[in-house]
Protein 1
Amino acid sequence: MTHPVLIPTLETDRLVLRAPAATDLDAYAAFCQSDRSAGVGGPFTLDDSFHKLSAIIGQWSLRGFGRWMVADKQSNEPLGIVGPFYPITWPEPEIAWTVFAAAEGRGIAHEAALAARAYVYDTLGWDTVISCTTPGNDRSVALARRMGAQRDGSFHHADYGELLIWRHPSPEALA
Amino acid sequence: MSVTLSDTPVLETDRLILRAPQAGDMEPGMAFLMDDRARFMGGPQSRFQAWRTMGHLTGHWVMRGYGLFIYCDKASGTPLGAVGPFFPEGWVEPEFGWSAWTSATEGKGLVAEAAAAARRWAYDTQGWTTAVSYIDRDNARSIALAKRLGAVLDDQAAYPDLPGWEGTLVFRHPGPEDLA
């Protein structure tokens, strides 16, 4: 079995941010096949879910960074996908977050996104980062605001339509 | 920072090196997927879709423990296309796939050379005893290659139930004992 062993693992109080694995497919596909994925272009089929999950893993190799599987630190239950995300058609890299139904309303996305933001600033050395939300995704907008991000325009994506840009506080502003 | 697939095999043939996908394959692979040359495999794709597909080819190695090799010119290292074992969700059974990213690679037996090496690897190391290739009935070049590799049309085999796949041909490869 092949593992991209160099995908780093982060820990927070309640969570582990770790490499996505084949064993996460059921949880990820359940999210993709549900209405919860409407904000990111879904719902998707099981086939699409496999394609997307493997692409999430592959981006670590192709970009040198990528999104983690967020899991419960005690049970290892997959709870969501969070991390730096830079599709080739994005204007700049973002911190992206997605949480599965089991993680809703518990501050999981916030806790994971804070760890991811600290990672891109402290380890990758980025000096700025954005997050993108689809219009009407109020929960995602609320998280962006909670992290101190402020609206910074929008862009039109050929596949996703209009995406709102939220710019996070800089490393200096957070220091 | 470097994040790479570990423990992936490297195969060598007379003229080629076969290895797992790397960051440098991104642009040439995307150029193929966005081109009319990809019309028999669901293309041309948008730039975003092509970007994701290249990630998918890489991540497939992690999801399954095997995946498509990128075959490269041995002398220059130039990536020429993808070949090998492929079994994403939705496939009926494991497949041997192949692509030649530009027309310059065609007509030299390079794809056959690469595909045969990848097939040998899957039989020898993954325990595969059979596999198919799914081919669009209008893809004459690919049909010719399947036959050249000894694969025969299998009318009884099902193909993935996916939009646009109606009438897809299923070629079944000779098994490991037939190739011994």
Protein 2
Amino acid sequence: MTRRLLTGNAAAAWGARLAGVDYVPAFPITPQTEIIETLARWFDGGEMRGRLTMLESEHSMVTAAAAAAATGVRVFTATSSQGLLYAMEMIHAVPGWRVPFVLANVSRGLATPITLEPDHNDVLAARDSGFLQIHCASCQEVHDSVLIAYRLAEDARVRLPVIVNLDGFYLSFTREPVEVADPAAARAFLPPFTGRGIEFRASRPVSQAAAVLGGSQYSYFRYETHLAALQALPAYAEIAAAFAEAFGRHHPAVEAYRSDDAEFVFVMIGSFATKARDAVDRLREAGARVGLVRPRLLRPFPAADLRRHLLGKRGIAVIDQNLSFGKGGVLHAELASVLYGEPGAPLLASFIGGLGGRDFAPEEFYEMIDVTRRAADSGRAPEPRLLYTAGELREMRKLQAIAAVERHEDGAGKP
Amino acid sequence: MYRIRFHGRGGQGMKTASCILGDAFFAEGFEVQDAPRYGAERRGAPIFAYVRADRAAINERGIIARPDLVVVADDTLVTVPAAAVLQGVGARTVLLICSNDDAATWTARLKRDCRVLTLPAPAAPEAGQAQAGVGALCAGAAAALVGVIGRAALERAVAAELAAHGAPVVARNTAQALAAYDALAAHQGLVSAGGAVDAGARAPVDWIDLAAEDAAAAAPDIHATATSLKAATGLWRVMRPVIDHAHCHKCSWICSTLCPDSAIAVDADHAPRIDYDHCKGCLVCVAVCPSHAIRAIPERGAAGAVP
Amino acid sequence: MNEHVIHRVRDLPSAHLLGAGTAMCAGCGGLGALHQVYDVLGEKTVFVNAAGCMTLLANYPFTPFKGSWLYTAMASAPAGAQGVRDALDVLLAQGRLPPAEDLAPVVLTGDGSAYGMGLSATSAAIERGLDFLYLCYDNEGYGNTGQQSSGATPHAARTATSAGGRGHPGFKKDLFAIWAAHAPAYVATVIGAEPLDLARKVETAIGLKGPRLILALAPCPTGWDFEPAALVDVGRLAVNTGIFPLKEYRDGRITHTRIPRPRLPVEAYLSTQGRFAHLFSPRRDDAAIAAIQAQVDRYWQGVA
């Protein structure tokens, strides 16, 4: 086994290649495009068997992906940001088909304003769709998660599509050492897909995705999709254990870093969590008992694992790289819902940071722990805090001056 | 609260009936809720609409489970389970059926302890003509039975609901509504307002914990073919096509090919056969048969239509 | 396969594949066309359906199909067909699917999808050379929601969103020409009222590979306001007045399979439907009728 430098995009493509994917419906969008370009090259060169088809939109791409999955082949596709949103009708429609496939989403902030750098509002817009979600913090994790995602999606208890999420730029375009799995080992971990009754065949006609009339039937099918998503929790634990056994890397549903004896814990998802890991080490060196808890699975939500890791702590700094307008951080609300009313529930301090790829300074992590500590001492949760400095606002003012917003505001700019 | 359901077929004006009655209640100072039941309703298919009226604000919503009054525009629907005409009909429910059979006949037929009244059924349409709407008639009848709606309020409600269709339509429907209202004058106030479900002595709810089931069963997939044959769309029929085999030229294809519903097959001897379980009564076959060997007769009274 | 099995009306199937008992309206012209098309296509098909009236064909647990079906969405049925076709091709190429188990994907949409929301997905499927049949039941409006005007609504037709005295101000889009401009394998117009013409065109389509459109005018008693029994009359008048030309495109050439002689005046067709009633009553709108006639005349002048 050799390690090589790969971008997150290349790691995702390698995951798909090693999964023996049969079919890739594709559409380009920054910062995802390298994934489909890489796969296209491999199909052309014969390194992959099957077909890559360029669709004319992400909506069509996800339709084709699910339709091919419903026909019984192993399908991979990828998108990002506005593309995920353009596909959103189908993102919500196809989990109900109960067909497995994997979609890599390269997170990127949503318009408006349009931007290229990452945050998680795109993938969180798919939170309630029925797609399962695995969030990665490194290029190695991207590679590994694609293989794990297929086992999960195809598990008889689950049979739902899975999103593997990687942050744009910070993972997609960043090279890191990645141990690419040996093809035979990958095949042993993930045998070729046989359809297992998911099919369109002349001799076995089926009408898939039929309509219903009435809330009672609808409730049954929708709740079954929910129950299948919940069954992905035990299934994931088994699959992650099998992966660890085969490849020596363990990817639990919730990563807990130095949190066992911690008083205060960061909770966040995605690639910036490795910066939090670093901050934990520095804070520990400074004598603070701090840890990191990072959900890799966001759907299904690993409630029991999170309770196990977080109950009894003094305070949690929840860092949301997303923003639900008029409410705040999504992860904060999700976490509160599983901790509220539990004995030993910690104080939650909400921080919004990393919007559109805005970086975190190490000092900000330290400050967040101070804020959380003071709040825990006082017993009152602080107001949610946007990570945004006076210096940033000064720079913003300069830009606004160039954009002549003041003149526009008072009408003086008009002739 | 008054809870009233109108049952009929798509195209018979049940939504109009509920709107007219709602308007009339409202004009008399009631709080009102009226709505059609939306679904895959098509012309001829069983459909219903409902009205709630109360002196106090109405918090109840959705389908009326325990009606005080059920008005049936088309008596062929009464005993059709899919039409759910009798759902929730109890001892204090008044059941008004537009029918040429009398109330005693229906009471004997239904074997229910509800009070049954009848109004003469509207005349069957001519072949090729649409069934005329009877919404105003049904609303007029209901207005009389509840006993709290004046003749003038009813008249204004008909005019308000149908004004967009022009004066002749308003006049025809007003006459219909008032005739029904007057015909039931002897029963003014027969329908009384019902109460609410008692929270103190309620029936238990049998909630269950839904289990995760195999995805093949828990997806909306149909693994059988042509199961649509289990849907009795023959119930939609108001007019019935009847083949006169003595005049059939056995062309073997025209009626069978042009029937949009695949409801006419041709036997080995080239004789067409109509599948009455599914024929919706569009009468395309009547129109296209070159030898005029298919005629239309009213479904009401046709063999097997009414028990 | 260029051989037709269906030469005469007597060759038309007399037992029908499509199951009765669907939720379509009595006298539905779209269902009339579908049931004839299905008899020729057969059950080794997977219908990939877009949102429209026919969404309710497969209404759990009921389906009229003897073959397969997949519901997608209004905009992307051709992409669904792409996914199915691609997957079957991959399975065939890898020997994972016996050829006898192969299926033909058939996109089934109304005009709302075919002329509007689904046009981008359709155009792309054609440009990719997808081997599929597209069956459009064109009832000239968003019928399932109560007949609002669509890209297929003819000029002057009253719809739920063009209920004024002049009806729809726009003109019906030429979907046949849009398809033909892509140079696909086959494009044909059909109508249920002309079963032999329809069956022969579907047979021709089956014998070809690549993108193929069967565009069926679907007279709609509910949306066009006529008695269901008049379905076939209305359809024949659409053809005999020249308003709906029966034609096909193949190998770069357009052939009219029926040239109405004599061509009846358009009012013979318009006057059968409530949606055009304002052209005749309370006052006859000679100018509007003449304009529609002139447009039809111009079309046929261009047909050699």
Protein 3
Amino acid sequence: MDMRVKDLCVARGGVALLEGVSFTLAPGQALILRGPNGSGKTTLLRCLAGLQDPRGGEIGFDRELAAYGAHADGLKAQMSVTENLTFWAAVHGLSDIAPALAAFDLEALRDRQAGMLSAGQKRRLGLARMMVTGRALWLLDEPTVSLDAASVALFAEAVRAHLAGGGMAVIATHIDLGLPEAAVLDLGPLKARAEMDDFDDAFGGAFL
Amino acid sequence: MRSLWEYANPKKFIETSQRVLPAVTWASVACLVVGLIWGFFFTPEDYRQGSTVKIIYLHVPSALMAINAWFMMLLASLIWLIRRHHVSALAARAAAPIGAVMTMIALATGAIWGQPMWGTWWVWDPRLTSFLILFLFYLGYIALWAAVEDDDTAADLTSILCIVGSVFAVLSRYAVNFWNQGLHQGASVMRAGALAGDTEERVSNVFALPLFVCIAGFVLLFVALVLLRTQTEIRARRMRALVARERRG
Amino acid sequence: MIALLRRDLTLALRAGGGFGLGLAFYLILVALVAFGVGPEGALLARIAPGILWVGALLACLLSLDRIFALDREDGSLELLATAPLPLEGIVTMKALAHWITTGLPLVVAAPLLGLMLNLPGPGFAWLFVSLLIGTPALSVLGTFGAALTVGLKRGGLLLSLIVLPLYVPTLIFGAEVARRGAEGLAVQTPLLLLAGITCGTLALLPFASAAVLRVNLR
């Protein structure tokens, strides 16, 4: 199933950030979002994940098929790596976490408390979480923060495997992920021109 | 056919309310002056309660408005949740402190009235107690508005709190009734006999007429204050929008 | 959803303080009341049902802000919201976990503290029953308050200000059951009303909690 996004406009705190965001993603494809800080990458991903409503435009995609990977990994420091992953798998109705552990080289750490992991190891665990959601579309926000080169390669490998299985990914990142086949969407030119906030917008600009 | 909802446009609202406001204000002042002077100086003293009964001209209208202000907020909250009219949310926000003050006046005048009648400033009478609870609901509502930064988020949260709060305010009313049967005289103003001049249990005619004038005065005062405060809220909101635009531009 | 409940219970056990803190607070509160009003047995016996109910309510309040705050900080709340679980179910499970970790220990401890306050003999059973029926409503209402204030810095005080008035009907009927029980009167009316309030809040409040959570996650 294709993911179609048409003429999307997203806002944060009542102020429009991006407008005219359009793209189509077919199974097996990835899209990389680029843009300076504060350009609205996170807001766009949150809209795609269904956490907030876009101000305008269409998202032609079932949000139930999307898994969101935010800055924060959603890990509990008092639980082990296995327990954390098992929990997220259970929430998504799955139980097999072995492939995720293997893909991100976490097997040796499986009984370690998440609170004892290094920043990079936590990040790997957070990314492994994407695999146990069993969802077709990965929405990833700066996934490679605090990863070393070897881990970035692991991540690229996991994304490639996900795409090969008919999955899709939208990734906001600044670095080169080693995914040359992925399309790139530069958000810079899509900065919203409209300078109204929602309040004014609700009255067709008649208010200001 | 003009729709009522066009007044939900802030510009239209400010224009219209500007025009209405002076009339409402003066009518309110006139009603209050006439009603209070009539009530305080030109009504006989009650055979049991003496001159203390005259506090009724402040107590009953403020108590009435304390409840009606919450109803107005509930209505405005529902309109915001269903139709997303910003003016409605701001009107609810504007009404809350007025309602809280009305509740405070009702409580204070109740205590002052109760002192000579019951021999104590405060009794845990169901009515007084439920007004105290209503006051707490007002405080929570106002505090939530103040605490949330984003305006639309605050409007959504307070609207839902208003609805849940309404249910629990009513529940509390009955719970408190159950908890203590009370000394308070029943709601005696609005019964049919009031105007017919039945003096036994009801507030009699001589007292009732100035009381109705006072109630009208309080209602008009409430309307005037809500209009004024809503205008202020809209303008404050507009300032924030302009500042935001300047920063981006 | 069971996984969520199990995780919350595990965390409460491992992080410590989940079970213990509320209980310790309850004990201190009861002791303070005794210090405040004096050791006279007859007086303590008379006020015991009310004190034990108010104490349970305040101890319950103490841990409310943790219901969502921790999940919000580490990002799990957002991830849960995008998971296939309905948000209404998530808030119900959160309330249930809060009740098991906070409410239930209080219910069990209340009769013991009743001994300290010289609670009359027939009161113990009714105190236990009234708390058992009433505390779930406290947890559900508290979850609503926690969902309202989850995004706020220093939301703790505001949370109390919002939640405590909502607790009034539950407290009145609950304490009334305990009081009438202690005095050997018929408890049926307040008991049914208490059960009614609990059922009503259990049925309806999760929708309000989920709605405000959705707004706060936006």
